[in-house]
Write a structure and sequence with these properties.
225 residues, mainly beta, 8-stranded antiparallel β-sheet, 40% strand, disordered N terminus, binds 2-acetamido-2-deoxy-beta-D-glucopyranose
């Protein structure tokens, strides 16, 4: 009798958990350490959707990922969009030899080199109070820029990899996101230490909720025997 209270509340607790499983049934949760998403052809539909764990509106963010392509066209790498709309609140993309970071329709751009046959570790952090953006590619800090001070990112977003109007062609891996603006030296050290930046508290590559749409392969290297 004495324990009937706690037992009842435990069974009540189970209801939301079950609902969550039903709603997000098509998402896999997996440790993607060592794996990469291979976007192997241009397609209108190919993309990977990641579910971030966000409980409050975001005023500080950092996104890091690695990309590898031998054909930069108009490559959307990472986009935070309002669920089921293509409204991008935050967008990291490449167009020919420029990178772009956009927040709610405004953007800054960075001149890069188009040719680069290597993985690129791209990190971008943004802090709402000042709007300051730190943009770091393979350990190099680009000139600081400012975007939308005071803007707040709605928490009802999903993250889309490799897709805007059409898909990116290339590989993306080690995607992590934080709800804080990491210090630029942390983002630079990730590259120089040759250690990818595990693990974001909003998106964690080692425990990622993801869904693949269309022509994308999750490549996992087999162990050498
Ligand atoms: C965002 O960053 C600023 C500057 O570091 C800090 O003052 C503020 O508390 C942070 N906001 C949140 C919600 O973490
Ligand atoms: C988004 O679309 C999916 C599939 O079309 C649907 O299951 C889901 O409920 C939608 N989410 C919202 C917030 O409308």
């Amino acid at each position: 009798m004495r324990y009937s209270g706690p037992i009842k509340s435990e069974s009540r607790m189970k209801i939301p958990v079950l609902l969550l499983v039903v709603i997000s049934g098509c998402f896999a949760n997996e440790n993607l350490h060592g794996a990469s998403f291979v976007f192997y052809k241009i397609s209108r539909t190919a993309k990977v959707v990641l579910k971030p764990t966000i409980t409050e509106p975001l005023s500080n963010i950092t996104v890091c990922l690695q990309s590898y392509t031998d054909s930069i066209q108009r490559d959307s790498l990472f986009k935070l969009e309002i669920e089921n709309s293509s409204m991008a609140l935050f967008h990291l993309f490449q167009l020919s030899d420029n990178y772009f970071v956009s927040l709610d329709q405004q953007y800054v751009s960075y001149k890069s080199s188009k040719e680069s046959m290597e993985w690129r570790l791209i990190c971008v952090s943004w802090e709402s109070s000042t709007g300051i953006i730190h943009f770091v590619v393979n350990g190099k800090l680009f000139p600081r820029k400012v975007l939308k001070p005071g803007f707040i990112i709605d928490p009802e977003v999903t993250a889309v990899l490799g897709h805007d109007l059409t898909s990116y062609v290339g590989e993306i891996r080690n995607v992590n996101m934080w709800d804080q603006a990491l210090h630029h030296s942390e983002m630079q050290l990730m590259y120089s230490k040759n250690r990818y930046n595990c693990c974001g508290n909003v998106i964690n590559w080692e425990s990622a909720d993801y869904e693949i749409d269309g022509d994308v392969l999750l490549y996992k290297p087999s162990k050498k025997s």
